[in-house]
Amino acid sequence: MNTDCLSIRFAVKLVQACTVAAVVFWHGPATRASNSVVSYVIRVDRADLSGFDVQMRIPRARGTTRLAMASHPIYDDRYWRYVEDLSAESRGAKLSVTHEEDALWQVQAPGGELIVKYRVRLPPETSAIRSAYKPFLSETGGLVGDLHSLMYVVGATSASARVTLDIPKDWTIASGLDPTSDPKTFAASSAEVLLDSPIAIGKFQQWDFIVNGVPHRVVYLPQSNAASFDTRAFIAGLKGLASEAIKIFGRPPYRRYTFIYQDGADGALEHLNSVTIGARSQSLAQELGSVFQTTAHEYFHTWNLMRVRPIERVGIRYRPAEPTPVLWWSEGATIFFSDLLLRRAKLPTSEPTRLAHLENKLATYLLTPGYSHISPERVSLTSEDPFALGDDFSSVHLQGEVLSSMLDLMVREATHGQRSLDDVMRLLSERFNPERGIGDRDIESAVHDTCGCDAHTFFEAHVRGTQPLDFDRYLRAIGLRMQVTWAPAVNGDGTPAADLRIFALTRPEGSAPRIRLTNPSSAWGRAGLHTGDRLISVDGRRVATPADFRVWLGKLHIGDTARIEVERNGRTLTLSVAVSGYDRPTVRLEEIPDTRPEQVRLRTQWLNSSNSTR
Q1: How far apart are CA 556 and CA 538, in angstroms?
Q2: Could you read off the pLDDT of 372-393 as tens digits, one per residue?
Q3: Which helix (H) or strand (E) element contains residue 456?
């Protein structure tokens, strides 16, 4: 992530501490192109690693043929901006190409094979740590393919495809795409699979394992100065995660799967048959817990976001996707399950027990008032715009995980421990697929059909509505209740913590940094600052980037007076902020009086991260 030039998509990631979302597309108008195989060649020349060349062959194209580069709903890096030297020919004749929209081109094809050629010139890296899902090239390898590299024929997205890699002879290839008899050629059953399958190339390490008869490949692209790490424990942990996930559903939604890890990179992104994850070797040498946590989350998205996806995320699109109201489930339930996978696989977790984990989540939830009065549907719909909620803040990730935790307790109580949220997720996976997306009523229906309980009231009050959750109502199922105490926040060394609950973010067009509050009652909100204020200077020094603001913010202490100059509605304002401490809650879950044996039994089952039907 380039933290010096945060765009909205990275701002969301920074504030919500998330990971990212599914590949989604938009169906365009029909074309006369045949549904025959569309073939591609990606050529990488070691002498010029500034980009790569692409050749696209479309059989029997006739009339108006529209070509597009697909858009991602969250991580839309608009790689159409880097397409150069686009040309088309048919029957040996050059054809005119019209650039209709940002990501859309049009060719009048006379019939026969249409050959399209272009170059993708990679944008320069502006950060020492690159994003793991973006294409790159180096002396030892890179990442190419998917929607960052390949165009598709609008209206012919069901056409199968083949892609051949013309790369240095000493490089290898790995992808979630289907292998063919040619080790440098891979196949995809549709344009969507093709455009959701990044391809790792280069000199990398690789390992294989099998779960339930299904092959899984792990590749690691190291840098020249890579540190060694415990690869045996690394692969064993990944196999454990895959085994536990597949136990929930009975079978995976893929025929093969590829884990692509990259040294010198950060972030991660899920795909239908693979995942790309930044994993610096120096960090892996110290501990593997962090990479397992990231992997558990992104890998579970294979089911919850890629297979079971919001209806707004179905199909291929070259324009931005419509917002979805169910992102709280797609992200929050995934976080809920990723924690379970880690515990079931006996891998490191942030907290030693589920009890401690839930206590911490509830405390974070209570710290920020937006969680209790902004509906998860609204938060989902505005999740891509960090300024949309004003001075309040709520994250689909935490909000969704807390909701999922309460739904899990509700299901366990109603079924006397015979079922859990595992069964809800499995039912959704049986009912839906990438061609048939879900809405909030579908999630509600799956909960109801799993437990036979009143899911409608829960969803009306706490998903579509803003009624605060009565946590004790659901904790009672396992004989617990919540005790909340408030005390001054402290740093890691026990000293009082300054109220630094403020961010600076930028929009994609690179405008000046803008303020983002998370709590209107913070020291910054009380001083009169508002989300969306454009930053001009701090203590008399100009602010050019969010990183400048963070450096300045990190030097403040309780008792300091900060002076911030902002622009709001065309007016310049200078505000003084008295930096103070702030209170934060601590949550302890304690046993209720007169606990029944049934509640103790359900608690034991819950604490062991188990589902009795597994």
Answers
A1: 12
A2: 999 999 999 999 899 999 999 9
A3: helix 455-462
Contact 361, 402 (CB under 8 A): yes
Average pLDDT per block of 10 residues along the chain, 614 residues long:
35 36 34 69 98 97 95 91 97 96 96 96 89 96 98 95 98 98 97 97 98 98 95 98 97 97 97 97 97 98 98 94 96 98 97 97 97 96 93 97 98 98 98 96 98 98 97 98 98 96 82 93 97 96 94 97 96 97 98 97 94 53
Q: Which structure tokens are listed for 268?
A: 């991660």
Is pTM beyond 0.85? Reply is yes
Dump strand ranges (E) for 240-363: 257-262, 265-266, 268-270, 274-278
Is 580 exposed, middle or buried (CB count within 10 Å of its CB: 0-12, 13-18, 19+)?
middle
CA–CA gap between residue 394 and residue 16 (Å, rounded): 8
What is the DSSP code string of 131-148?
A: ETTS-EEETTEEEEEGGG
Amino acid letter at 165? L
In this structure, are residues 51 and 119 in contact, taking their beta carbons and an 8 Å threshold? yes
Distances (CA, A) of 522 to 65, 390, 392, 402, 494: 55, 14, 11, 24, 21
The residue type of 480 is L
Residue 508's pLDDT is 63
Q: What is the pLDDT of residue 36?
A: 83
Cα–Cα nearest to 207, from 143, 257, 170: 257
DSSP 310: B
Residue 70 has a CB neighbour count (10 Å cut-off) of 28
pLDDT tens by residue, 454-498: 999 999 999 999 999 999 999 999 999 999 999 999 999 999 999
DSSP for 513-563, written as a single string:
-EEEES-TTSHHHHTT--TTPEEEEETTEE--SHHHHHHHHHT--TT-EEE
Task: Give the dihedral of Cα atoms 539, 543, 545, 548; nearest 10 deg.
Answer: -30
- Helices and strands of the chain, counted as H and E runs: 18, 31
- For the four alpha carbons of 27, 28, 29 and 30, in that order, the dihedral sign comes to negative
41, 54 Cβ separation under 8 angstroms: yes
- Tens digits of residue pLDDT in 310-349: 999 999 999 998 999 999 999 999 999 999 999 999 999 9
- Helices 421-431 and 440-451 cross at an angle (nearest 10°) of 120
* Alpha carbon of residue 490 to chain centroid: 31
Structure tokens, 516: 């983002």
Q: Report residue 46 as tokens.
A: 């070691």
The neighbouring-strand residues paired with 110 are: 62
